[in-house]
Amino acid sequence: MSDKKLTIALAGNPNSGKTTVFNAITGARQHVGNYPGVTVERKEGYCKFNDHEITVVDLPGTYSLTAHSLDELVARNFIVEERPDVVVAILDASNLERNLYLATQLIELEVPLVLDFNMSDVASSMGYRFDYDQLSALLGAPIARTVGHKGEGVDDLLRVAVEVATSDRPRDEHIVHYGRDIEREISKLEGLLAAEPSLEQYPARWLAVKLLESDQEIREKVVQRSANWEQILHQAEASINRLQKVYDDLPEVVIAEARYGFISGACEEAVRSTVEARHDLSDRIDTIITNRLLGLPIFVFLMWLVFQLTFKLGEPPMGWIETFFGWAGEQVAALVPAGYIQSLLVDGIIAGVGGVLVFLPNILLLFLAIAFLEDSGYMARAAFIMDRIMHKIGLHGKSFIPMLIGFGCNIPAIMATRTLENRRDRLVTILVNPLMSCGARLPVYILLTGAFFSPKAAGNIIFSLYMLGIALAIIMAKLFRKYLLPGPSTPFVMELPPYRLPTLRGLVIHMWERGWLYLKKAGTIILAISVIIWVLSTFPRQTTLEQNYEARIEAAADETLAASLEEELASKQLERSYAGRIGHLIAPALRPLGLGDWRIGTALFAGFGAKEVVVSTMGTLYSLGETDEESEGLRNALKENLNPLKAYVFMVFVLLYVPCMAAVAVIRRETNSWRWPLFVVFYTTALAWVASLVVYQGGLLLGLG
């Protein structure tokens, strides 16, 4: 590669600020794809620095390169196979010893390396003082300092990275010494591996260490590429057995301890701590937040508060957007002659997309609240708090993180299960994730709670739906773990990062990343489905019916009668359209739930494309022919056909039934099988029907109907 074109790979632990540094370097010049052959997300960005065109790759966040999870394997393979010009290890300077474990493994890979001490302001405020020159000498890599969320030190980091990438100087061999016994076995394997030309792209010492760690992927590479693989693996097994007898433990455990020993020694030499107040403060907060008795009630209260604020603060801007789209529909109706084109623009596109965008303020507020909880360090505590409950259902707290992400969108939540090492845990988490109430369902809740419940009760109603989703997810996970995917669960270990006050910039970026996905859906999928629903609800035309009504309308004695006949015609045309026929097919199955109206069946059918479309479809089906503002007309129409109990049952069904087609496609991709997505479609729909039946019939018995 030309010196003018460079590739920088960013590696680091979760919570190290790696992606924040990536955003600070690349800004908006980035795109997201997938690594070839796997489902792990690949983020690439671009920047220019001192005439160099730089491609920056944000590797998956990992604690090590031991290839226990797919993210670790992908990060390692990118570094080893694609050989970036320089690897920048992003380290949380306030938690240095934990973060240096990954750095020691990068050192062993003998790659051009820069260490970035990120969050250096936090480390300084906690009383840490670093001898950077001595640390750089001990670790054999230059050190840069950044404050990622403020963009501080980014130019210096790029300068150091470019210097390392363009330098012809060979890297000094700064390696961890594993003790006489392990080093003897490494030497035996290293000699055999160095003699294999097919393995020369890998450092021989690194391969030897990986074989002693029983790294399955490296073993497979040796078998595939080496003609002498039997002798190499025989030596590896003999070395492992010998070391187990010496240490009475697995070599990979002893090797990990040696790495931590090296890190501890380096920090003793070059790190000073003058105060411990900040860390003590985090510990004191945790005595309350993660308390065995108080932890869960605090978590439930915070979730309740999030939904109360989301509903109340989102109401005014929601009204502004609603007014704007009402005005836009009137303007288009005045400019475009009556007919199919006007109906498509007003009833299809403006009503469909506008009916979804009106809920954007609520969506953004929800994402902002979740971003605050994540950036402050509380979400990691939420997983820790839920660990006891999750263990009882055969999972662990780590599975709760994708479930929490599911409150925003089920698609990234399903993809987030890649961090789970155990395949059974991962599959069960994927299967129950659609029961988490994603942001796309929120517009349905807001519409119905606004129509049937007081503003004071609306937040509690929505909160109850989220809690119902969590409760059913826990029950289903228990059943799946016991009967469908039995087996032992893996132990839960998660870092609890120190509490931090989130920055406004970070919160806005994280909120906008998720909000932009919602907007893109409104401009693409939802727009397309709105047009499809309009076509289904407009055709086929009932020519004979139209002619009969037109004659009656012309002969009408007054305008009131004519308007009534026009609405009657629109209603009959709609019922006999393709959409009406679909709704009539579904209606009998929904009748025991109190939802026998064929228009509800049509809306639920459309919701398989995207849950937001349930609202716009109902707007099209219920408000066709209405002259007043769409949302108000829709609410009035719903009040004529539903009551509070039926509205709640409808929300329960929307919460639980089949996830959107994009989520089904992601489940297919993540599981590499059609068996699991089809199972999800079947069981969620069956669960939705049963739960809605129980709620409706129970409500009738209690006299709530």
Can you offer a commentary on this structure?
It is a single chain. The protein has 705 residues and is of the alpha/beta class. It has four domains: 5-166, 3-Layer(aba) Sandwich (Rossmann fold), CATH 3.40.50; 180-253, Helix Hairpins (Orthogonal Bundle), CATH 1.10.287; 297-508, no CATH class; 525-701, no CATH class. The protein contains 32 helices and nine strands. β3 (41-49) and β4 form a beta hairpin. α7 runs antiparallel to α10 and α9 packs antiparallel against α10 (229-247). Residues 624-630 have low confidence and may be disordered.
Quick recap:
This protein has 705 residues and is α/β, with parallel strands linked by helices.
Task: Write the topology of this structure.
Blueprint: E1 5-12, H1 18-26, E2 30-34, E3 41-49, E4 52-58, H2 70-82, E5 86-92, H3 96-108, E6 113-118, H4 120-125, E7 128-130, H5 132-139, E8 143-145, H6 154-166, H7 180-194, H8 204-212, H9 216-225, H10 229-247, H11 251-270, E9 271-273, H12 277-289, H13 295-335, H14 340-357, H15 360-375, H16 378-392, H17 400-405, H18 410-415, H19 423-432, H20 442-452, H21 455-484, H22 504-523, H23 525-538, H24 543-554, H25 559-576, H26 578-590, H27 598-606, H28 613-623, H29 630-641, H30 644-656, H31 661-671, H32 675-701
Parallel strand pairs: 1-4, 1-5, 5-6, 6-8
Antiparallel strand pairs: 2-3, 3-4, 7-9
Helix pairs in contact: 3-11, 5-11, 7-8, 7-10, 9-10, 13-14, 13-15, 13-21, 14-23, 14-28, 15-22, 19-21, 20-21, 20-29, 20-30, 21-30, 22-23, 23-28, 24-25, 26-27, 27-28, 28-29, 30-32, 31-32
